[in-house]
Amino acid sequence: MSWAVYSTLKNDFSLLMPLMYQDNFQIMSMMGTISLKVVARCCYVIFVLAILDFLFQKWELNQQLKMTKQEIKDEFKQTEGDPLIKSRIRSIQREMARRRMMREVPKADVVITNPTHYAIALSYKSGEKMSAPKIIAKGADNIAMKIKELAKKHGIPMVENKPLAQNLYKLELGQEVPPKFYQAVAEILAYVYGLKKKKTRQG
Fold it and tell me: Do 5 and 38 contact (CB within 8 A), yes or no?
């Protein structure tokens, strides 16, 4: 602003000296002209400064956005690679899978036990194109105990067979019983179906 005032007065300084010999109207007219020049130059300076400020603010904002995006990427990498986070995610996934498995226990035809360490729930539905009984739930120790509690609650027969329970526990959840265990499982299912028929007749 001071530059605008100084440059205007410097250029018009030669016009100011004769004003002392002029009347008031001429003095006011000259001062008005000089004032308008000063205002015009000030507006020009303000306009230029506003453009420069706008460009600087835009540049600064872009720099901040770039930093923010990089910070997000870095944070994501840190979070993704954090062993504690990964462990927590796996723990949640296991818990969800266990709950889904437990909901299948009431659908079982029989639960084969160790009797204390293992519990394997088998289901066989001949009308569902199953070639062999399927493992719908399995667990050891505390989970085995919960499977047996659910089986008892829903009236699912439990049969103790240590060798078969140990071997079936090694199989994957949802896997059908391999042929080498057909006979042992068939004998258990025959026994279970016999119990059901007996209860039906008594009922």
Answer: yes
